[in-house]
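Run log, item B.
One chain of 538 residues. Sequence copied directly from the ordering sheet:
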Amino acid sequence: MLLGFSWLVVILYLFLQQDIHQPVAQAANILGIFSYHLSSHFLVLQSFSRGLVKRGHNVTLITPEGMPPNIDGVRHIRVPKLNRRVQDMIESDRLLDYFDNKWMESLMAVSMLSNMSHDILSDNAVQRMLRDRSEHFDMIMMEPAGLEALYGLVEYYNATLIGLSGGTVSWKTEALAGNPAPSIYEPISPIGFSWDPSFLSKVYNWIHITEEKLLERLIIRPAQMLIFKKIFGYSDQKFNELRRKFSLILINNHFSMGRVRANVPNIIEVGGLHLSEPPEPCDEELQRFLDEAEHGVIYFSMGMDIMVQFLPEDMHHPLMQSFAQLQQRIVWKNELFNIPNKSENIYVTEKAPQRHILAHPNVRLFITNGGLLSVMEAVDSGVPMLGLPMFFDQFLILRYVKQGGMAEVLDANALNAEILTKSIRELLENPKYSLMAKKMSQSFRDRPMSPLDTAVWWTEYVLRNRDANHMRLNIDEVSPLRYYGLDLLLPFGLRFGIVFLSVIYLCYKIFQRSRKRQQQQRERWSGTLQIKLLQSRS
């Protein structure tokens, strides 16, 4: 009897300790809106949503059909038009033009974003939700940049607004968080952006980002405001107020991967959030191929959203020629099983269990297009990388890990077998890459809480403290002079200006007096010469 009572005391003590250290927010109704048709973004959302449901929250997601797959405990509202928009873009004859020209890409973005906002808000299921007076949401979560017309839902439900960024952070995300610091390093579009560290390149990049800001302010934002006013009937002033309502922005990044910024308190790094999901299973044949690799394994994948059949033809041949020269085994994620001239050391699989492969001790190199989640998984497993970036933020992501010393990057459009083979052998044979990969992996993993626990904790913090203005930098209270430190420069500039103008004025007066003396002297000499000429004639 006494022993049973002692166990009861111990269990009660542990329960109370857990309750003290992990405050539980009251179960909340959370509405998430995510329109982008990108598999990687939805892996992050899927993990986060499951974490919220596990904590007892009621989660509703507005997404395209099939992305993400249905999540237990989550109410899904699917918008079929979002799928059709993406399909129309893929089938467009001008698709390649969008990725070659920054202005074409901007025009595509304006059209896509405005169409997506309208498609979501005009969807029948969403309209039924808006008309249902019993619906109530305590929190709205969404991608922070792009679909600004949807901010009207925050006012409509009197909800807290948080952002979940599945990709990299640009200057626009920083501005929405209340941290509009000047930046020349984080563009929205990398097309035409210069990675040269020279002064002229920095000036050019400043112009590049200034152009993006003008496009956003003069084209993208007005298009979103028209939809905002049409659907909700709110004013321009309300639109601008809601843009400053983000209490929290969770970003899929971690400083160990090279992007180090002075974040304001409401920007929380949760890079690796999707790693809370169990890794994909591996079939016996692939497992045996990995286990029996005497000289190691190279894993090659261009991500979930790029099909090998759409890659340029002049990219296939160098890959095949290079792989045939290597003694390592190659696991190639490729939907084309019948590859011509395929060497014996290549294993082709359509759906590769990527995390399982990268975690295998025989895997020595990862050749990747540089998708954010793929790079994170390689960093987590400590595997060096060879980057072949194609578009969007892949150039920026690979640039950071290259600076960290665990990767090299090649131009995918100027690939040849000699350069590719040389780069692969350098990454395999030079121990510095493996060493730096292990070091970055250790930094990436060493955290006080897992990325998922961090994301859920801060979300519940905002739910417990609905007025989270204390986490934002209130730029309205800080004039541009003070924000940029110009108030300190102004007195110095004024004094310097007075002295400078005084010196200029003094120099001008001295110059005037000197000219006057020279003129008088010339007149005297002229008079003397005239007298001498007259005397000589007489």
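Observations after the first pass:
- Residues 12 and 112 are 55 Å apart (CA to CA).
- DSSP finds 20 helices and 13 strands in the chain.
Flagged for discussion on Thursday.
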